[in-house]
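INFO worker-7 received task bundle
INFO bundle size: 2
INFO processing item 0
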Amino acid sequence: MTRRFTAHLWREGDLWVAQCLEVDVASQGETEEEALANLKEALELLFEPPSPSRIPHVRTVEVELGPAA
């Protein structure tokens, strides 16, 4: 599946910053193209399905609550 995102680019010192406007992700690079490529990689990693290295151990916790004040 392919999805389009909008990137805002600006220069900050010696680097270019690329920020995705739809998702709170940003990256940087020495050129505009590098910043965009790094942003693309960051977005791909963000939306990559998780693959746990260990099976999570899930438990329930029972808590006794006092009367409402």
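INFO item 0 finished
INFO processing item 1
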Amino acid sequence: MSGGETPGVPWRSWRVGTRVVVRRRLGPEEEHLYTDVLGEVTRVDDDGVQVTTRRGPVDVPGTEIVLGKVVPPAPPRRPR
């Protein structure tokens, strides 16, 4: 754990603008048990986090967060 993290719930210490990856648990009706969300934190509150990905904002309830960590900035996109 890095400084400022709440034991067991590191996402509560994330700051808006931080790039993160979140592993979230999906419901039993889904084909897969987990999925990852990669992007920039745009909201953190008692309910969970919102991460803005390349496809748009994703709300992740705290009860579905299995793992999460801060990751380095995205590499610059290569010209086409």
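INFO item 1 finished
INFO post-check item 1: The mean pLDDT is 88.
INFO post-check item 1: The chain has one domain: 10-70.
INFO worker-7 idle
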